[in-house]
């Protein structure tokens, strides 16, 4: 179980996270949602790294994160960052093997080699396995990085230790429609097989499709927590994102769909905004005179 | 990470080439000694009977002058290329080399100081006392200290809150280089013609000072990095993913930085101290290897030791043979051989190199 109690994190005097509480466990796919600047990425960082907090603490499997050794932590959780190097002169297999680094000293063991093979199969990237990483497209590179991260916490057959945690920071940001689905399918399958997956996602429809739990952040606070249907109400989305939406149910999958009301947006907000802007410009000009 | 079969072939080829060049370099020069005679002399020294006969002149030239020189070339070539590779890995920047963190600048400054003020200094009783202990090696020791002090200053300047910031380190390196350069220039301005000639030759590098004593002196400083830097290859591979990614993989980035800076300074500082500034090796050798066989740091680090030793042994051979019985400064040769090879590989691998 991952538990964060009353965490407050600030940079200088600016409070980025304010008394946030989180509890999530094996089998769950928790999505952290919210507008830009709400503190999502910071929250992910605080949960996944050993960070000095103003108040509160984070525990993984009932043990304070600060008490983990770097290697022990690396075997317990893996993090897929938003951006990664693109110019690595390594083969795809070599990149995925890097995920096994915390598990061996100088040379990989047989089990490490087997796990890399399993992951290549799991992610359906056999055709890329012996290619040079630099020659891959952005989406392919992102899937290879996901493979590396999975290798880090892949459960060995006779695994007896505690829950393993996978943190994903906007894992589908550079993927096409098809690969967005495959990556989130993989994440969802991992959660079902006993991992705890914590992801930051922007697309509310993908969230409602895959998240078992949603944590909606707003200005450093937890705005709402629960299932997607519970969290995403018209009023709340208007309050947090400042946007009117329609909520409809997909007639085939019965999934909740969140559709921005573009007509409203065009007629009111743009005009309002440009109006505001011209006002501030005028004000500024007046001030400067 | 395992070394791929292609990388293994490159390493084995380098090793075999190195053996060939050691024999060639030991045999050629003002006095010719055949490879079988080289073997016989070494066997004779070990108390065994050789296969070929040799005269005492050959024995002395080989054992007193040439063999120590070849070994010194191996050690310094390996040290320079290896530290270049490690620093490029640490800074994740293909332009990084030992000059960048102030090692060469500090060594130059202290050496030029010594050359110019030697006559004044040697009159003081304290200096006489020091010279009595270290004797002939005073200049080398001062150079080594200069190299260590500047890289230590650069390292200190780049640390804040107990963490080393790589960008700050680059900037601090540039600042210290500029300062040392200005001071070196100032001292050079006051140097006499004879001192100027000494300074120029030192800055072009030479293996002329080789003796068994120099080798024993620098051996630990070069061997320790050769043994320990490749052990950091896993961490350096992870670091190529980015500092944050590497720390997610459980690597203590800050410890890694300290280890690499200390080991590189040891290797380069001691090399510069005995052979002057031999440019180009540390910058280019790792590049060439990367373009030929990829970025796996275990391969890059081991390969750099071999290829650096090869480049310097070959260059020294040419430096001695070309204008025999005189010799050219070795730094000129490394640049003259290295540059065309580098450009050739650059053109051949244009596609890969744009990603580096």
Summed up:
Chain A is an alpha/beta fold and 289 residues long.
- Give the CATH H-level superfamily of chain B: ABC transporter involved in vitamin B12 uptake, BtuC
Order of helices and strands of chain A: EEEHEEHEHHHEHEHEEHHEEH
Detail the poorly predicted runs of chain B. Answer: none
Which strand order spans the largest sheet of chain A, edge to edge or round the barrel? 6-7-8-3-9-10
* Average pLDDT taken over every residue of chain B: 84
Question: How would the blueprint of this fold be written?
Answer:
The complex is a heterodimer of chains A (289) and B (356).
Chain A: E1 2-11, E2 14-24, E3 29-33, H1 40-48, E4 55-60, E5 63-64, H2 70-76, E6 77-80, H3 92-98, H4 110-122, H5 138-153, E7 165-169, H6 177-192, E8 196-200, H7 204-210, E9 213-218, E10 221-226, H8 228-231, H9 234-241, E11 245-249, E12 256-260, H10 262-288
Parallel strand pairs in A: 3-8, 3-9, 6-7, 7-8
Antiparallel strand pairs in A: 1-2, 1-4, 4-5, 9-10, 11-12
Helix pairs in contact in A: 3-5, 4-5
Chain B: H1 5-27, H2 35-45, H3 56-91, H4 103-121, H5 125-134, H6 138-157, E1 159-160, E2 163-164, H7 166-189, H8 193-204, H9 212-228, H10 233-239, H11 243-248, H12 253-275, H13 281-293, H14 297-322, H15 330-348, H16 350-353
Antiparallel strand pairs in B: 1-2
């Amino acid at each position: 179980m991952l538990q964060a109690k009353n965490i407050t994190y600030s940079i200088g005097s600016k409070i980025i996270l304010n008394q946030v509480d989180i509890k999530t466990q094996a089998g769950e796919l928790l999505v952290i949602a919210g507008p830009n600047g709400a503190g999502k990425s910071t929250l992910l960082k605080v949960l996944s790294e050993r960070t000095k907090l103003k108040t509160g603490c984070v525990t993984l499997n009932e043990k304070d994160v600060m008490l983990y050794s770097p290697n022990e932590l690396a075997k317990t959780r893996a993090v897929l960052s938003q951006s990664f190097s693109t110019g690595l002169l390594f083969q795809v297999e070599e990149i995925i093997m890097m995920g096994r680094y915390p598990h061996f000293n100088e040379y990989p063991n047989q089990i490490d080699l087997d796990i890399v093979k399993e992951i290549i199969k799991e992610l359906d990237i056999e055709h890329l396995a012996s290619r040079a990483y630099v020659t891959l497209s952005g989406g392919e590179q992102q899937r290879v990085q996901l493979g590396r991260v999975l290798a880090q916490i892949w459960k060995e057959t006779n695994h007896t230790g505690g829950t393993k945690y996978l943190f994903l920071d906007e894992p589908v940001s550079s993927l096409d429609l098809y690969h967005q689905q495959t990556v989130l399918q993989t994440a969802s399958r991992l959660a079902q097989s006993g991992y705890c997956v914590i992801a930051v996602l922007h697309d509310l429809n993908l969230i409602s499709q895959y998240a078992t739990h949603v944590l909606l952040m707003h200005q450093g606070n937890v705005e709402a927590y629960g299932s997607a249907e519970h969290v995403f109400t018209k009023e709340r989305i208007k309050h947090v994102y400042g946007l009117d939406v329609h909520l409809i149910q997909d007639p085939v999958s019965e999934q909740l769909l969140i559709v921005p009301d573009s007509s409203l947006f065009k007629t009111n907000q743009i005009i309002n905004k440009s109006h505001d802007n011209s006002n501030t410009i005028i004000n500024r000009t007046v001030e400067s005179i | 990470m395992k070394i791929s079969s292609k990388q293994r072939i490159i390493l084995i080829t380098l090793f075999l080439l190195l053996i060939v060049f050691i024999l060639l370099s030991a045999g050629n020069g003002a006095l010719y000694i055949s490879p079988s005679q080289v073997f016989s002399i070494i066997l004779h020294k070990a108390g065994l009977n050789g296969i070929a006969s040799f005269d005492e002149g050959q024995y002395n030239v080989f054992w007193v002058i040439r063999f120590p020189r070849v070994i010194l070339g191996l050690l310094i070539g390996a040290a320079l290329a290896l530290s270049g590779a490690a620093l490029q890995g640490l800074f994740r920047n293909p332009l990084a080399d030992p000059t960048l963190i102030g090692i060469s600048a500090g060594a130059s400054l202290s050496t030029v100081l010594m050359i110019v003020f030697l006559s004044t200094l040697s009159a003081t009783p304290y200096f006489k006392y020091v010279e009595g202990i270290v004797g002939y090696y005073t200049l080398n020791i001062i150079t080594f200290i200069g190299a260590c002090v500047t890289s230590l200053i650069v390292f200190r300047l780049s640390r804040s809150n107990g963490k080393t910031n790589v960008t700050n380190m680059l900037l601090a390196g540039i600042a210290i280089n500029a300062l040392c350069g200005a001071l070196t220039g100032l001292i050079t301005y006051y140097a006499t013609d004879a001192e100027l000639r000494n300074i120029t030759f030192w800055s072009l590098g030479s293996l002329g000072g080789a003796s068994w004593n120099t080798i024993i002196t620098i051996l630990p400083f070069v061997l320790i990095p050769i043994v320990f830097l490749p052990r950091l290859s896993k961490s350096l591979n992870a670091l190529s993913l980015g500092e944050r990614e590497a720390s997610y993989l459980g690597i203590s980035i800050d410890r890694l930085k300290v280890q690499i800076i200390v080991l590189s300074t040891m290797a380069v500082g001691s090399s510069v101290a005995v052979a002057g500034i031999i440019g180009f090796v540390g910058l280019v050798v790792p590049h060439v290897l990367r373009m030929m066989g990829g970025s796996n740091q275990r391969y890059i680090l081991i390969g750099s030791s071999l290829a650096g030793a090869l480049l310097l042994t070959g260059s020294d051979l040419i430096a001695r043979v070309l204008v025999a019985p005189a010799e050219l400064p070795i730094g000129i040769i490394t640049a003259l051989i290295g540059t065309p090879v580098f450009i050739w590989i650059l053109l051949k691998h244009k596609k890969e190199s744009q990603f580096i």
